[in-house]
Amino acid sequence: MSGLSTPSALLQASPAIVVGSGLAGLSAASQLIFHHVPVVMLDRAPKPGGNSIKASSGINGAPTRFQPCDTEDTAFYTDTVVSAGRPLSSSTSTERLRREQLIATLTQSSPSAVYWLTDDNAIDLSKVAQLGGHSHPRTHRGAGKKPPGSAIITTLLDSLTRDPLFELRTQAKVTKVLREADEVTGVEYKSPGTDPNATTRLSGPVVFATGGFAGDAQGMMMRYRPDLAGLPSTNDAREGSQPLLEQVGAAVVDMDQVQVHPTGFVDPADPAAPVKFLAAEALRGEGGILLLEDGKRFANELGNREQVTNALMKAASRLETPTRQWEVTLLLDEGAATALAAHLEFYVWKGLMRKTTVGELGKTGCQTVCQTVQEYADAAAGRTEDAFGRKAFGNWSLGDVQSDSVVYVGKVTPVTHFTMGGVVFNEYSQVLDQSGGVIRGLWAAGEVTGGLHGQNRLGGSSLLECVVFGRIAGNAAAAFHQKHYKTVP
């Protein structure tokens, strides 16, 4: 057993079990601790944080005091419904109601989710950008050097590990969810250094927050989306955990709905690497554009992720590499770069982006690239309408484009990034079975769940769903624990 906190005698009272140490798990654990319920958190990885710690664009919230205006009304809900697409619009009336309730809970709870992080946990989320598929700026991040995922995860984890009611066990792989009659009663897990056939049993109500299966290339991805085989991913290779919940009766939905993010960095030092750093959507939100090899744009960079990805795959040439990838140039001017100084500093340090001039990008001087960037600059300045219908230009400031105009560039390609499918759950974070019944003693939050995002997830809503439904799960599990288990005085 390994971990970041020392086991406490207080935990001998039956704990609540949180599986997964990303933002959904940490949010659930925080609420359980708030209600004085002991928590054992299990994570199969050597280090905590999951994919949440890598999140780089931010967390959605609307309306909040950090936004330029507070006149959104139902726009966030509407944008999310539109983004959900066919799985929502073609569902039965009962299923549509469940999905709409999930979306309503997500969007209506978004201000309190942001304020829980900023006011209760002192995390800076004062900068707001507009990402693809959004009608307003509503994606929050901090003004400091830490990306939002890292800032949020490290703060919550530090707080939890100081509490004697909390214990983190890393390298603890859950192999079975325990169910007796109609109730989940705990889990079994394996730890390194023990008999490979031996498992440890832990009893208590369970919150599952284990993430998706975008990195499970030879397993669940091959089963549900074999057409995406060979694409690089932003996710490390690891098994999906939905089958563990299916074994205790959980239903699954939307398993074929996989989000391919249009911009994963192509590292010049290892172009065919199967796992790639995400080029944060905020890079486009703050003004960045995408250019083909001939120096031309091909899409509204702030369309939703599915739209931009499809346009990129259609317009760009596929490379001859072991991985299925394309290659286009992501370009930012100095205004956009300044707004994303912390991101740029990291990307440049990693060799994923570089500082150059517009003229150096053209094969024969400025020509096409200069013309393309000038046309975009004119639209950003309000002198013309953008040819691709883009309406938001972030902090783009370059007006008069010259051959020596400074820009920042990097190569990007589509990558599998997020799985919208998962176990069926409701607005109370309860896991449902095939008949729509609640599985007692079991809750789920984050990417392990399905039905919220439908066909496409809006950027910034992943961290949001982790906080909203993680906290709901934590509160519900605490109430269940206090009623059915021995509690700490």
TrEMBL record:
Record's keyword terms, sorted: FAD, Flavoprotein, Oxidoreductase
GO molecular function: FMN binding; fumarate reductase (NADH) activity
Cofactor note: Binds 1 FAD per monomer.
Keyword Isomerase: no
Co-factor(s): FAD
Role: Irreversibly catalyzes the reduction of fumarate to succinate.
Protein name: Fumarate reductase
Organism: Aspergillus nanangensis
Lineage start: Eukaryota, Fungi, Dikarya, Ascomycota, Pezizomycotina
